[in-house]
Specification:
Layout (H helix, E strand, L loop, with lengths): L6 H12 L13 H11 L3 E2 L6 H4 L11 E2 L1
Parallel strand pairs: 1-2
């Protein structure tokens, strides 16, 4: 999850485990390469992103080796 603190962030924190998922919160101070490493290392399949960080994850060449998608 890559998001600023908001009511939506709190919803993610309760909905993801309820749906059987595991949270992997990313530090908003990390570089794109560090975020990508975290996703690959944890085997994440989906990255939840708010509008603030959409441009960061839409950069060409930033694709996870595990195939993590962002929503």
């Amino acid at each position: 999850m890559l998001s600023l603190n908001s009511d939506r962030y709190l919803e993610y924190q309760t909905a993801v485990p309820w749906g059987g998922g595991v949270l992997n919160p990313c530090n908003i101070r990390w570089s794109a390469a560090e975020i990508l490493y975290s996703l690959d290392d944890s085997g994440s399949a989906l990255l939840l992103v708010d509008e603030t960080f959409r441009s960061l994850v839409d950069r060409p060449g930033l694709q996870s080796r595990t195939g993590a998608r962002h929503a």
